Amino acid sequence: MLIVVDQPLANLVALTLNHGKYVTRIAKDAVSARSSLEAWQPHLLLVDLDADDPESLRLIGQRIGRQRIPSIALSKRGDLKTKLAAFERGADDILTVPFVPEELVARTLALMRRSYGDDVAFIPVIKVSGLEVDLLNQQVKVGKLRPVLTSIEQALLYLLASNPGQTLGRDEILDALWGADYVAGSNVVDRHVRNLRLKLKDDWQKPRFIGTVAGKGYRFLPSA
Questions:
Q1: Which sign does the torsion angle of CA 46, 174, 52, 93 carry?
Q2: pLDDT (tens digit, 9 = 90+) per residue, 156-210?
Q3: In sequence order, what DSSP letters do the residues of 91-110 get, joined into one string?
Q4: Where are the alpha helices (DSSP H) in 61-187?
Q5: Does the global pTM surpass 0.90?
Q6: Domains of the chain
Q7: Cis omega (within 30 of 0) on the bond before 54?
Q8: Angle at 106 between CA 74 and CA 138, to 5 degrees
Q9: What's the count of helices (H) and strands (E) in the chain, helices before strands?
């Protein structure tokens, strides 16, 4: 699968798709995406319509020989004009950002099965930096603990864990998980990080999973 999405969202998409037996590649722009389309010939294309590269929309509907590549468009804009433009280019589905991981997995599985008729494998539990994440039951296995996460806590965990060692600012997290137009108090990200830490029994003073970068944001510790 070829992912043409800006960071840090691209890594979140790639990690989420580990719930299927997929090989993923990330293209940083439309030019590199076209090279990958020709050389790699992916079975599915995921394109961010809001990416900095305006040529991203033109990638949808591309063909490899006589075969059109199934495509899912991602967009923070849920307006009819944006959706129609994507469908007219040949998008098979549109997913509004922000999304919960299980929705992306479900839509990807459905499109792959419609397009190729295969019984595509679904892996409900994946390992993420020392954690076992159960997508269906929204549980995380941490030793003997089985904390139950909300959808937003699970999405927050995926976002942080998919960018290990990288500091994500509060605005980046807010934009990726709540959307650019979300109006909320300044502590909404901090509150959800605190709740996630409590469920993971992750001491903020001696963190095992989620570290605080003073004045900047949070990062997932790659050594976990």
A1: positive
A2: 999 999 999 999 999 899 888 887 666 666 688 999 999 999 999 999 899 999 9
A3: -SEEEESS--HHHHHHHHHH
A4: 80-89, 101-116, 151-161, 170-177
A5: no
A6: 2-116 (3.40.50.2300), 125-220 (1.10.10.10)
A7: no
A8: 105
A9: 8, 13
